[in-house]
Amino acid sequence: MTDLVYFVPLLPLLGFATLLVVGSRLGEPAAGWLATLAIGGSFLAAVGTWIGLVNRDEDDRVVEKIVFEWVPAGRFSVDVGFLVDPLSVAMILFVTGLGTLIHLYSIGYMHGDENYAKYFVYLNLFAFSMLMLVLGNNLLITFLGWEGVGLCSYFLISFWFTDEKNASAGKKAFVTNRVGDWGFMVAMFLTFATIGSISYVDIAGTAGQLSTKVATGIALLLFIGAMGKSAQFPLYLWLPDAMAGPTPVSALIHAATMVTAGVYLLTRVNAVLYEASGWATNLIAWVGVGTALFAATIAVAQNDIKKVLAYSTVSQLGYMILAVGVGAYVAAIFHMITHAFFKALLFLGSGSVIHGMDNDQDMRRYGGLKAFMPITAATFIVAWLAIAGVPPFAGFWSKDEILLSAWDTGGLNGRLLWLVGLITALLTAFYMSRQVFMTFFGRYRYADPDEDEVTAAWSGLVGASTESLELATTTVAAATAEVEAADSPEEKAAASVNLDNAIAAESEARSRVETAREAQRTRPIPESGEPNDAGVAVDFLPETVLARAEHHPHESPWQMTMPLVVLAGFSVVAGLLNLPFTKGLHFLEQWLEPALAHEHVITTGAATKWLLALIAIAAGAVGIAVAFRTYIQRRLDADKFERPVLAQAWYYDRTVSDFMGGPGRRLFDAITWFDANVIDGAVNAAGSAASRGGNFVRRAQSGFVRSYALGMSLGSVALLVWFVLRISS
Amino acid sequence: MIGTVLAAESGADGSFPALTALIVIPAVGALLLALVPSSRAEVHRQLAVLTTFITGAASVWVLLVFDKDDAGFQLRDGPTTWVESLGISWDLGVDGISLFLVVLTGFLFPLAILGAQPDKDPKSYYVWLVALEAGVMGVFLTLDLFFFFVFFEIVLVPMYFLIGKWGHGNRVYAATKFFLYTMFGSALMLVGILAIVFLNQDATGVLTFNIIELAESQAWSVNAGRWIFLTFALAFSVKVPLFPVHTWLPDAHTEAPTAGSVILAGVMLKLGTYGFLRFGLYMFPEATVWFAPVMLVLGTIGIIYGAIAATMQKDLKRLVAYSSVAHLGFIVIGTFAITSESLTGSVMQMVNHGLSTGALFFLVGWIYERRHTREIAALGGLQKAAPIFAGVFTLVMLSSIGLPGLNGFVGEFLILLGTFVANPWIASVATSGVILAALYLLWAYQRVFHGAPEGENAEMEELRISEGLVLLPMLVLIVFLGVYPKPMLERIEPAVEQLVDHVETFVPDWDEPVPTLVVPSDAHDEAEAEHDDEAEHDDEGEG
Amino acid sequence: MGELSATWYLLLSAAVFSIGAVGLLVRRNPLIMFMCVELMLNAVNLAFVGMAFGLNDIGGQVAVFFVMVVAAAEVVVGLAIVVAIMRRREGTTADDLSVLRG
Q1: Which helix (H) or strand (E) holds B335?
Q2: What is the reported pTM?
Q3: Residues in chain A closer than 8 A to B516 (CB atoms)
Q4: pLDDT for residue B518
Q5: Which domains are present in chain C?
Q6: What is this model's ipTM?
Q7: Which of A609, B56, B73, B229 is positioned for an S-S bond with B287, CB 3.0–4.6 A?
């Protein structure tokens, strides 16, 4: 049965190739269904492989399958092969399962797009690459998948490439990932240079003989790669920008699968991490938890529904890296799986919201959507509870494992790690609750005009009344002229009456202008969530506001809501994978054991464990409560939390962009100038020196026969003298 | 299997001078072309295509009959004495290192002719192009130093005319610069050649120009070897091009006509790298080992520097030209790391670069044909206007970036791997070249292809069938060599390993760098043995 | 006065040669310059004959023939060119004829 593993990456590859050739002819929705079938078949093959592995003895669960020899050169040889062991099987199960759901979702989401088939071409290629990454039996195959997913991410982020922003985001993602890839490549070289092989079986076998220095080097270099792919500080920059791609892409690639590749890689080489110095793994843990906190603070102030989720992903990945750093690989994988479910659900749900809100992604315009999109709202709420760490939903169990493992490493270091993780959990609960409250609860705000629009409306009103004032003034002037032009006393009397009326009308118009100006100055701009008391007349509201008032949010079609429901179900029950109560319930841990030789063993007492769990629940509750008070009850001022520095992501991205565009670009320009003017200048100078020298010598060729004759005679005299001297000596 | 059958049937054990044919066919073809009157324009193109096709087929035949286990020179043609009093002979041979360069030449020339047309005077154009093929084949095949020099210099003449007459704006400057710069570099090489021939005569009493004899006898002092290596190295450094003697390349590549650029980048740059292998490692092993650190540093600088310069170029073709400097930097460090992995990678990368950069020059040339501009700022949104063109460009660009699964990655990876074993710091710095490659290529792609097309860009014509057919073999190879490079690597390896052995033999205190730990199976046994010992001790302790 | 030895021939030859050399350098009229060249050539002839006489070697006299042939050839070609030029433009001097400059 384990032979079915060949089909796991093969089917998406065939799907990719088929759609590449005939995709545009198949069109919508056949192309989508073909792609979904491919990955669905892959999922079935993964299940078959899992069954095949389950049927084996526990000590026999590492199966290597070689397809062919890929690169033989000198002492180096690497095969295209698959490593079927509990870890890879766990990965392919949730990758293909989630992938199938998201392919299905995409069929509905991408409806009407002109490049419908191309989308599924990329998506299937992505599935293939991710599966190769996870199934590879050596670092190079993993790297093949690693770069492949990066490539597909580039294609999919810049899918709507006619907009410069999307194109730029795609390029940024690829180049930032490449910085991490540098680390991965050098790690591979170092591994080969010391072990002589880069296959996982060999690495695991000889890891014990590596010197600490080498092991630390390999570990840290691979971590650099993981920092790029799993979006840790400082290489996380690309992930928020990657939200420019279609939302299912964000769900699949940038939440559930590609970004977890770094965590997977480090777990895979846990034997090497074990041999590395303590400070290195501690560094990994601190970078992870630091990134988690950093990203959580930023998510608090984001207004784009997808950006909140992007930073949330960075933060949750930080938790997984923290787990890897302290050696709690099971916890990392556990959280990876639960996170995949609820984060994908959150993204797909947000996609549903965006779909129903006419592609508007600003949460300040949402509000009260629960009434319009019940299924989306319900599933979103399930995911919210999961990520906030509310038991019995899945996120609580996995996050708790990680926090417990952090605490368990002991000493001040472990306590601090736990504390930072706890604060992050609080913030997570807060910003996710904020997102849910702003989007689904409260008043429906979509038709509300925002500040600029109100200002525009008032200006319109003032302008209109000023116009009518001018009209009234003109009427007065005309009436006055009429009075003076009147001949007879009757006409004069009639004209005077007209004049009085006109003056009265003018003063009325003037007072109306005063009222309008006064109202414009003093009338408060309505805050989001408050009833609309701007009192602006509908006539003067801009077109955009009126268009929004016409809009009716709607629920999404079944192809989109069904995956949501399935994922919600998983978010509820996924905790069952590894409940902490008794050893017997540690299904995931037992399953992964053959692959994880150096799992950190928890030594904390049961009482402390309960206490820590309760504190974690309390932190989550506090976060939700504060968000409730701020966004539903409106008792706390939201501006205290949504600070500009957070909204601007601590100015880190801006600093990097400014540096690249400023000094970075100037350095590059300087080098190019150097090449064109100094080095090439030297070459051209050599050329011009030759030609100037020639010009100089040319002066001897005067054309004057007599000077030639003189030269000849002088020369011959000199020769004669020399000969005479030689003969005489 | 096909190879042995073909070899048996044609009697490739010496009766049919296949390698001479590879040189003679294009030469005769050029002569015939010159005789056809200018009025019959179509005949010129057809005859040129025919000649290069036959040569290409012959080179593929050589590939098929090549014995992959034989590390020496195969299909040996000669040595037939030519000038007895000087020891010059006609001697041709092909080994794992030159085999793929010969095939690349035979492969690229017909495509270059098919993929681009001259805008004036087709007769001379095709004469020069076909004559160029004869010269290039000669360089790769000859085993005689005199003929090597002749062919090495002779290829400059057709190239000069191709650039100078059919090129773009600044063509005369570029052609003259190319010619003089390269000739200046190789001026001293003649002195070096004569030096080793006469030194060898002094030591052995035999006057010969034969490469194999000279390399195997190594009849010169260490100092003399180093000096003479420098003369050769200068010539090859200019040809490769190595930083800082690289500035002829951007001008020559940019101003050359499309076919000229393809051949220049695809084949002619490899004359330099091939020279380093044959005359560096083979002829002067001691000097190569001694100068290796310098060359490694220069190569690494070339990688980073070329990439940075490429990033800031405003002309698309010039960008591709600078990328060649960067890519050849990789090949140079692979050559001077002197490990079997890096050398295999270098040889493979020579072919890879020819395919990917050749294809890039085709594509850029076709963009120029349609839009009459190479300025990146003037182009934009071409993916919307011509999606298939963009797709093909993407594939070739990814090969250049070194995406795993495509050919460029395999070569680059092997080079860096082998270099790391020899010198980890150089390899670590050189690997950052992959970041820069992604940067400049993707940024250029974004500016040229992404975005919304305006004006003339929106009407750019899609890839024509004829153009697609020219690129198709290159694309197929790009993917095939990335997925299944084993047949190619197998044929390169024996020659490379023999070369490394040769260096080990002639450089007494140098050994090939090795991975430091033992092979895994041995380690496993050792670890088990340890555990057994421990268990025994425990038992004894308890007992 | 001494014997009529070769020395006197050489002295005469030297004198004529100097006259010719200085004339070539100083005079500007092309025809005169040509005549000076002929003077120098004939001075050399004289030297050859004188030495042949002095050393009793017929080789010197043979050399004279060579020189005379060369001189004749040179006159034919050179004088023809000069006369042709002078016919074109009256009063040209050697200084004016500098078109073949570098």
Answers
A1: helix B316-337
A2: 0.86
A3: 193-194
A4: 39
A5: 7-91 (1.10.287.3510)
A6: 0.89
A7: B229
